[in-house]
UniProtKB/TrEMBL annotation:
This is Rad50/SbcC-type AAA domain-containing protein. It comes from Thermodesulfatator atlanticus. Residues 177-235 form a coiled coil. It comes from the Bacteria. Keywords: Coiled coil. The keyword Coiled coil applies. One of its GO terms (molecular function) is ATP hydrolysis activity. Residues 8-235 form the Rad50/SbcC-type AAA domain. InterPro entries: P-loop_NTPase, Rad50/SbcC_AAA.
Length: 270
């Protein structure tokens, strides 16, 4: 990636300035309190993809919120990133047809382009100030650059990346230190704890499956009992109906007998 242009609107001391990076490397020399550090801060804010960060960074005496625009090139393609605190929007458009408007999508864009450590680079981006240099210019450019490369700023940046990256020892890849500051032993201990927790949850899940199997068996047994009860209820109803019919037949026969006896008595009386 190479920066081509950075445009500021209502951003701190830079107000409405545009910086074009025609040369590589780019050198920017200016008096104190004129925006050298603010330039780097603005680039970091632009690539943070967080418009809310700009709300407290508007130019003094102005009520209009900042807008940052960065133009850069990756390979042969040119991209334009815009962070607008006024309407809280983020956009990334490119000559290859890229058109993104969500921070998560833009972060995936970095990953797809191979810039996995890009946020860390920006987070460590600092200006090498004059007070970091202790060499006289008369000693030559090589001495000056050697001093720059050994300055506290460069050393800090170097250590930051050494601590983040994975190093190889023998045939084994190990963590030197994660970017969130955890040592290898601490990570391994946490991993062991997670494995124990996973094993515990697996045993709980197995017990749950056993209980579910028991519950299904009980449901089947209960269903069979209900069917048996329904069959018994039906048989009872049938018996009740049969008993009622038998009583009816008995009463009918008894009525006929009494009627016959009554007729016989009437005949005798005559």
């Amino acid at each position: 990636m190479r920066l081509l242009k950075v445009a500021f609107r209502n951003y701190k001391i830079l107000e409405d300035n545009v910086f074009e990076f025609a040369e590589n490397p780019f050198y920017y020399s200016a008096p104190n309190e004129t925006g050298k550090t603010t330039l780097i801060e603005g680039i970091k804010d632009a690539f943070s993809l967080a418009p809310a960060r700009l709300k407290d960074k508007k130019t003094a005496g102005k009520d209009v919120l900042p807008v940052l625009e960065v133009t850069f090139r990756i390979g042969e393609e040119v991209y334009h990133l815009k962070i607008n605190a006024q309407d809280e929007t983020v956009s990334l458009r490119g000559s290859d047809g890229t058109d993104l408007s969500r921070p998560a999508a833009i972060e995936r864009f970095w990953d797809q382009k191979g810039y996995h450590l890009f946020p860390a680079v920006l987070n460590s981006l600092l200006i090498i100030k004059e007070r970091d240099l202790t060499v006289e210019v008369t000693r030559g450019l090589k001495a000056l650059m050697d001093t720059v490369l050994k300055s506290a700023t460069i050393e800090e940046l170097k250590k930051s990346f050494e601590n983040m990256l994975i190093f190889q020892k023998g045939w084994e890849l190990r963590f030197r230190k994660q970017s969130f500051g955890k040592e290898e032993k601490q990570l391994r201990d946490e991993l062991a704890g997670l494995r124990q927790e996973l094993e515990h949850k697996r045993s709980l899940f197995e017990e749950y499956q056993k209980n579910m199997a028991r519950l299904e068996a009980l449901k089947k047994a209960l269903s069979a009992r209900r069917k048996e009860q329904e069959a018994l209820d039906q048989e009872l109803v049938w018996l009740q109906k049969k008993l009622t019919y038998a009583e009816y037949q008995h009463l009918l026969a008894e009525g006929e007998r009494l009627q016959k006896e009554s007729l016989l008595k009437e005949q005798e009386l005559k």
